[in-house]
């Protein structure tokens, strides 16, 4: 059992970390791409924004076409292969158009590959562990990105590009080893019918887009202001981000991570204020970058892990994961365009700070309703916890006193199955406990759903327990 759980999870972490390393170091405003454009003396702005837009499209659209584990694996492998081929022209001084087309192709299919990994995040990482898996891939990919950036800046952009492509090759090898058979996935992921994710997703997307505008501003305003400190920016840039991820990953479960969102917002505000008041020395960069990237680490892990938990409530993990991350990319794009305009117009740092603080104020207004929506969706399992901690007599009283909508009671066997469903048991576990076949369990579950006019465990929780368990436990 341990091997089944651990090995595929490790493979998925390795595969995605390496894929993401390629994205961060090359395609997505990576130092390799900047170094290549500097080497060939071509403007980078068009390439940067083209890649971001194409990556956004790949993330957003992939889930509408990729709906099975096999298709997700193929999408990752094809994306990696096409990205490898599309990276080759950047070794040569070729036409601007070929670079543009290659970059669009690489960013588009890599976006699809990233979205497809959502299927494996759901399949091979237990729901309560997804925050750690998300933290791991972000930490590993950023550490490897720093190394590749240093090689590109201090040795050669072609060495950096070669290392990015090597990461991509290794990502393909690990992806090829990922198991995708229905039987293997069923052992660690009990498929659920989709809950209504519309409102929580909309609030989360709005929150991510707006807060990430500051990241785009950082790329286009902060980084150029300190570009003379290459010796420092080349390696320190992502260090606070990694440290924040490590801290957030290893917080005790009893610590409320939501408090850190407000800490992160305060850090962003302080970062922009420091950018306005301080000079452009190394010490100033250290202060500004530490605050800004530390906050980015807090927020990134927040929405990555939230999206990871949302996968539990959907039978379309690629779509949920892709659309969720596309919000991040769209926010960076908006912030980048805003920052580029600010730079070209020579807007003062004070005005930049006012814009950033306005963004933070809007984000603060969104956070309470977002929290309410997420609580309704993800904390529905507290109903399960409330039920499972009750004495058996209380559990029996709740089930026996609850009539179905057509005034029929559940059969004795259906009550036993319902009790185990409310205890969080999968069909397989219920079958083992009641010494019946899994198909028989499915039949009982179908009958229960029919009598309650629901279609999933989540709706059973909401319908049966939300208004009854909480009332009796208060």
Write up this protein.
- With 474 residues, this protein is mainly alpha-helical.
- Helix content is 78%, strand content 0%.
- The chain has 22 helices and no strands.
- α6 (130-154) runs antiparallel to α13, α13 (282-310) packs antiparallel against α14 (317-344) and α19 packs across α20.
- The longest helix is centred in the C-terminal third of the chain and has 30 residues, at 349-378.
- The protein is globular.
- The protein starts with a helix and ends with a helix.
- The relative contact order is 0.11.
- Mean pLDDT is 81; it is low at 1-6, 183-195, 380-385, 403-407 and 469-474.
Write the layout of secondary structure elements.
Layout: H1 2-27, H2 31-39, H3 45-62, H4 69-87, H5 96-124, H6 130-154, H7 157-177, H8 182-186, H9 198-225, H10 230-236, H11 239-249, H12 258-277, H13 282-310, H14 317-344, H15 349-378, H16 381-388, H17 392-400, H18 412-422, H19 427-434, H20 438-452, H21 457-465, H22 469-473
Helix pairs in contact: 1-2, 1-5, 1-6, 1-7, 2-7, 3-5, 3-14, 4-5, 4-7, 5-14, 6-7, 6-11, 6-13, 9-13, 9-14, 9-15, 11-13, 12-13, 12-15, 13-14, 18-20, 19-20
């Amino acid at each position: 059992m341990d091997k089944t759980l651990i090995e595929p999870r490790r493979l998925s972490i390795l595969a995605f970390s390496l894929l993401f390393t390629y994205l961060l170091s090359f395609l997505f405003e990576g130092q390799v791409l900047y170094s290549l454009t500097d080497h060939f003396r071509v403007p980078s702005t068009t390439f940067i924004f083209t890649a971001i837009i194409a990556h956004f499209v790949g993330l957003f659209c992939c889930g509408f076409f990729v709906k099975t584990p096999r298709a997700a694996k193929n999408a990752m492998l094809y994306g990696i292969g096409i990205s490898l081929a599309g990276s080759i022209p950047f070794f040569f001084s070729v036409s601007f158009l070929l670079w543009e087309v290659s970059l669009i192709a690489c960013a588009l299919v890599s976006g699809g590959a990233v979205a497809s990994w959502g299927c494996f995040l759901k399949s091979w990482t237990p729901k309560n562990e997804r925050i750690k898996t998300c933290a791991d891939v972000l930490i590993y990919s950023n550490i490897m990105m720093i190394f590749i950036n240093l090689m590109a800046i201090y040795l050669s952009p072609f060495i950096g590009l070669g290392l990015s492509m090597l990461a991509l090759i290794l990502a393909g090898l690990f992806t090829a080893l990922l198991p995708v058979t229905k039987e293997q996935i069923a052992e660690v992921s009990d498929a659920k019918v989709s809950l209504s994710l519309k409102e929580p997703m909309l609030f989360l997307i709005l929150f991510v887009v707006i807060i990430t505008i500051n990241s785009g501003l950082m790329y286009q305003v902060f980084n150029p202001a300190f570009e003379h400190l290459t010796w420092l920016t080349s390696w320190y840039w992502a260090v606070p981000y990694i440290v924040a991820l490590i801290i957030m990953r290893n917080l005790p479960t009893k610590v409320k991570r939501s408090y850190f969102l407000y800490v992160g917002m305060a850090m962003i505000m302080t970062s922009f204020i420091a950018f306005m008041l301080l000079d452009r020395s190394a010490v100033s960069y250290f202060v500004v970058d530490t605050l800004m990237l530390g906050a980015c680490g807090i927020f990134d892990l927040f929405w990555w892990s939230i999206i990871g938990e949302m996968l539990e409530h959907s039978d379309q993990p690629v779509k949920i994961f892709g659309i969720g991350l596309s919000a991040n990319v769209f926010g960076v794009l908006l912030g980048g365009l805003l920052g580029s305009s600010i730079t070209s117009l020579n807007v003062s740092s004070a005005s930049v700070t006012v814009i950033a603080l306005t963004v933070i104020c809007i984000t603060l207004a969104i956070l309470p309703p977002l929290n309410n929506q997420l609580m309704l969706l993800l904390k529905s399992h507290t109903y399960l916890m409330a039920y499972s901690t009750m004495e058996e007599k209380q559990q029996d009283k709740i089930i026996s006193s609850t009539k179905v909508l057509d005034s029929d009671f559940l059969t004795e066997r259906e009550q036993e199955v319902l009790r185990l469903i409310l205890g969080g048991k999968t069909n397989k576990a219920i079958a083992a406990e009641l010494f019946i076949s899994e198909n028989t369990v499915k039949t009982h579950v179908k009958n229960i759903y029919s009598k309650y006019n629901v279609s999933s465990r989540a709706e059973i929780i909401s319908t049966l327990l939300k208004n009854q368990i909480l009332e009796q436990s208060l």
